[in-house]
Amino acid sequence: MKKCKNYLVLLMLLFACCAEQQTKIELVSSDSNCNLGEINVNSPTLSGKEWLIKNTGNAQLRIDSVELSCECLTAVYDSVNTVRPNDYFPFRVLVKPDGALGDFYREIRIYGNFENSPLELTVEGIFVKEEQAEEKCDDSIHAD
């Protein structure tokens, strides 16, 4: 009987060790798409967006790589690239005007060991010259 209990304990330990570790993520209070509105191409400050990502799984989250659709984007994130279960991971994207005026739509892909990798994020807006932005405000009509 004692031998059976030992085998049962061994089987339970083996099962616990082999239980599937899952890594899932969730965007916290934010949409995957961000419209930055009008961005002045002559402005010395960069526009951007920060997403807060939560590891909702039961395993360590690992960020393997980040793919940006344009050289005008800069990704800012912790270089350690790992997040414990139930911890948060801030991920910021900065947009530097690339000289072209008009609408823009840029994509960001975050690859890692989580379900449905990659996570796809987008930023969009309109690159304008300062003079154009001022004219737009002067000619705009505000309705209540």
Defining key terms:
144 residues, Immunoglobulin-like, 4-stranded antiparallel sheet, alpha+beta, single chain, disordered C terminus, 5-stranded mixed sheet
Protein described:
By secondary structure, the protein is α+β, with helices and mostly antiparallel strands. It has one domain (22-137): Sandwich (Immunoglobulin-like). Helices cover 19% and strands 44% of the residues. It has helices spanning 2-18, 130-139; strands spanning 25-27, 33-40, 47-55, 61-68, 73-76, 82-83, 88-95, 102-112, 119-128. Strands 2-9-8-4-6 form a five-stranded mixed β-sheet. The chain has a four-stranded antiparallel β-sheet with strand order 1-3-7-5, with no helix packed on it. The longest helix is centred in the first third of the chain and has 17 residues, at 2-18. The chain is elongated, with a radius of gyration of 23 Å. Residues 133-144 have low confidence and may be disordered.
